[in-house]
Task: inverse folding
């Protein structure tokens, strides 16, 4: 089959890499793609916001499956548009994508379907939000309702800060329309966990759990980022919690979607807090996590493309069998190497060295590099974004995978390179 992946991040490189290994794939295109995707497929320069141009490309190149990486085009209805033209798409339509594109919608969905969640309050009036914060005890978790590329949530321990954050979102429109409505949540304590599953609207296939590290610095200090690393599997939860997550969260969510007439085909992602009262859903995403994809996809064996197509075409059950999808027992550790200054401002165009060295030293079933903010300039790979690349290592245990990942990280150099030294060492806790 011919596959087109939409997106340009490390996640999309990981998806492209996994699909390039699927025996059922003949031609693989990525749009717009990046340096890494260009090594495993063909990058195509389409304006992916212009759905008609995506459709025209898909028709001209006899694309059998479009895989949508990021949330923005999904929220904008790209899956509905392409399906309307008879093209198979891995990724939910705009109605399903509301689970991510509106945090208040997602929370109300959890209420309707009895899915465990923190207590929450929704405001679209700045005065009411301020008087709520003034008359309640913190901490307050303040969330912009709409899509904010990971910049929409602030955990506030201080009342003045909470008032400020709410004001700047709602009156100051700090994130544009995404923050004109906010959700204020009860602050939950515990370890976080990412639970993702493949869905074809009827059948659910849970993927291995992962844990990501969101803060910029070691010990979960510093500002929130898009994610500085991840590891999988997560071994600090017992079988019972595992079952609760699959049954009472993932499966209940799919059932709820079905009841509401939403045919959900793609990744269902639950961002969880493991509390003393059990796991609770902080948020849904409607696509692979980044960097979770870089950490989970290398653990899968079998023909992933058949599975994604099965999701797109409502036949996941059969596809799983045909694909022989299996999870490797190995532990995977993914370390993000970022530009100095990220998530603030940073320099671009810095030469990256050591890529060939790593690829010569380690076989691909032990270490893989997934590129994000990197591009080629006159034969030299240079930085082009905040998160530059992900170093993923597989080994028989978490300490061994960590060691291997960091051995590879040390071989890669670029001016100002920043990475966390504790990925997979300590469970991510909430920073203050
Ligand atoms: N109710 C909560 N209690 C404690 N921490 C939270 C809560 N909600 C979110 N957080 C923290 O904020 C982070 C971002 O929130 P999330 O809802 O995942 O939004 P997004 O990923 O869109 O920024 C979470 O990963 C978690 O660390
Ligand atoms: Mg999140």
Result:
């Amino acid at each position: 089959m011919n596959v087109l992946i939409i997106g340009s991040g490390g996640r999309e490189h990981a998806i492209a890499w996994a699909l390039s290994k699927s025996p059922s794939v003949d031609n693989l295109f990525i749009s717009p793609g990046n340096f890494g995707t260009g090594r495993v497929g063909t990058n195509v320069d389409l304006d992916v916001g212009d759905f008609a141009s995506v459709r025209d490309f898909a028709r001209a190149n006899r694309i059998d499956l479009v895989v949508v990486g990021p949330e923005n085009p999904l929220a904008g209805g790209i899956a509905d548009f392409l399906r309307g033209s008879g093209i198979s798409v891995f990724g939910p339509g705009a109605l399903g994508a509301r689970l991510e594109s509106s945090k208040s919608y997602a929370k109300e969905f959890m209420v309707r379907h009895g899915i465990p969640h923190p207590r929450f309050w929704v405001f679209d009036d700045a005065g009411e939000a301020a008087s709520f914060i003034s008359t309640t005890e913190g901490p307050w978790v303040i969330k912009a309702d709409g899509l904010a590329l990971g910049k929409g949530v602030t955990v506030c321990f201080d009342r003045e800060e909470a008032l400020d954050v709410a004001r700047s979102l709602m009156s100051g429109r700090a994130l544009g329309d995404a923050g004109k409505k906010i959700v204020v949540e009860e602050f939950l304590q515990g370890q976080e966990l990412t639970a993702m599953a493949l869905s074809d609207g009827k059948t659910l296939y849970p993927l291995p759990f992962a844990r990501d590290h969101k803060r910029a610095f070691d010990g979960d200090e510093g500002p929130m980022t898009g994610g500085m690393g991840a590891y999988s599997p997560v071994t600090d939860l017992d079988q019972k919690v595992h079952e609760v997550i699959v049954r009472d969260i993932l499966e209940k969510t799919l059932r709820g979607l079905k009841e509401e007439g939403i045919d959900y085909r793609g990744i269902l992602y639950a961002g969880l807090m493991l509390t003393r009262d059990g796991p609770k859903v902080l948020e849904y995403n409607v696509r692979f996590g980044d960097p979770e994809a870089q950490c989970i996809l290398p653990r899968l064996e079998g023909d992933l493309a058949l599975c994604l197509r099965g999701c797109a075409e409502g036949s996941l059950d059969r596809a799983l069998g045909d694909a022989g999808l299996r999870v490797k027992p190995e532990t995977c550790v993914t370390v993000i190497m970022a530009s100095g200054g990220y998530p603030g401002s940073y320099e671009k165009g810095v030469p990256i060295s050591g890529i060939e060295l790593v690829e010569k030293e380690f076989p691909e079933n032990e270490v893989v590099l997934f590129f994000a903010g990197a591009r080629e300039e006159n034969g030299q790979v240079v930085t082009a974004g905040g998160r530059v690349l992900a170093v993923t290592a597989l080994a028989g245990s978490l300490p061994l995978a960590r060691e291997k990942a960091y051995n590879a990280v040390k071989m890669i150099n670029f001016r100002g390179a920043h990475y966390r030294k504790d990925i997979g060492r300590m469970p991510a806790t909430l920073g203050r």
Remarks:
- The pocket of magnesium ion (ligand 2) is lined by residues 271, 283 (CB under 6 Å).
- The chain has four domains: 2-92, 119-186, 189-327, 331-411.
- The two ends are 48 Å apart (CA to CA).
- The chain has a mean pLDDT of 96.
